[in-house]
Amino acid sequence: MLGKERCLELLEAALSASECDQAEAILYQTRSALTRFAESQIHQNVAEVDAAISVRAVAGKRIGTARTNQLTPEEARAAARRALDLARVAAEDKQFVSLPGPRPIPEARKHAEATAASTPEERAKAARAMVEVAEGQGCRASGSVMAEASEVAVANSLGVRAYAPVTLASMVLVVSDDESSGYADWRGIDISQLDAAASAEVAARKCVEGRGAESITPGEYAVILEPAAVGDLVVFLGYLGLGALSLQEGRSFLAGRMGERVTGEKITIWDDGLDGRMVGAPFDWEGQPKQKVVLIESGVARNVVYDSYTAGKEGKQSTGHALPAPNPAGPMPVSLFLGTGDASREEMIASTERGILVTRFHYTNVVHEKRTTITGMTRDGTFLIERGKVARPLKNLRFTQSVLGALDTTEMVGREAKLVEYACVPALKVGKFAFTS
Fold first, then answer.
1. Using only C-alpha atoms, what is the Rg of the chain?
2. 271: left (phi over 0), alpha (psi -120 to 50) or beta
3. Max CA-CA distance within the chain?
4. End-to-end CA, the chain
5. CATH of domain 4-204
6. Running DSSP on this structure, what letter comes out for residue 215?
7. How sure is the predictor about 187, in pLDDT bands with cuts at 50, 70 and 90?
8. According to the model, what pLDDT value does residue 421 have?
9. What would the mean pLDDT of 311-339 be, rounded to a whole number?
10. Contact, 400 vs 361, CB < 8 A?
11. What is the residue extent of each domain of the chain?
């Protein structure tokens, strides 16, 4: 780790060489280590260090960006000069107002020493624990354990100075045999919180219970979606229209619908990068403090997230959701939460006369952006529910479904939330979900 002082020194070097109206410099360095295993044996143990300095130069309303992976003052200054050269030949962006100025950044603990100091032996121990559970059920284990330590710094010519160390740890596990598979995952800041054996118990149980899967006629069914599947839906929703640029350009599913009901009243979705459960720095890639933004409240569309560019177009302030420049996609919510309810998984199953239990989705893609229609497959644990009980395992199904449509028919919401990629979500019982094949 370079540390705060050294990171900001390198950014100061870039700013000092940028002879333009405004300039921004970003430094990102990450050290990641991954232990991967398949067929119950570790087959890959890798470590990587990656780093970059990116400089954005503003000349009037012309903007250029350049980067280097050499963390020296000389290379930082060279990147700043290249960025200005590119800005001088770029087309004018008449909607650009200004880079943001400095704002107070709240403190948030996003770094765990256990993750930063993670060793191959510790990750191998976690892998062994999962393998032993899988083999105890006559299955095989495949997956990975990852630990990452990063530092992010942002500075600009208007006085922004931000720095934060962050860590990320994750585990992905598939337990399988010749006819079935089960899945479990975990994600967090502190790798010492990973209970590998408990995760393996979940995946192994799904694999055993999934043996002898049968087909079912495609159609609309009530579904119980476990958090991994719900996370997919919520992340896609964020991508498809909860950022200001997509709304301003009319691409968002919220275009013309702000203040209207867009989902069932049991659904509240917000973004909050300062929540202690969420991974990431307390500021965005422009050095602006992350803010909690309520996006959908009891089914009603309330807000979208902003960076300085989209906020400037409306005379607003950034909500701290900028991505690294250049960024044609605009701001994105990357710390999403779906509010919990009061139901357990068992209560959802017991309340279902006939439906399908889904562990997770696979190979999910967008079909229609404004309708929030996506398609994909179920995977690693799909089961038929009959008369309030899990009746038998099912072969995987393809779905084509509107995310908003699914959330509009939500009947029950789980009482416990789990971090899945960029979302912290509970399980859901959805009244209608379309399986096509």
1. 23
2. beta
3. 72
4. 50
5. 3.30.2290.10
6. -
7. very high
8. 86
9. 96
10. no
11. 4-204, 212-437
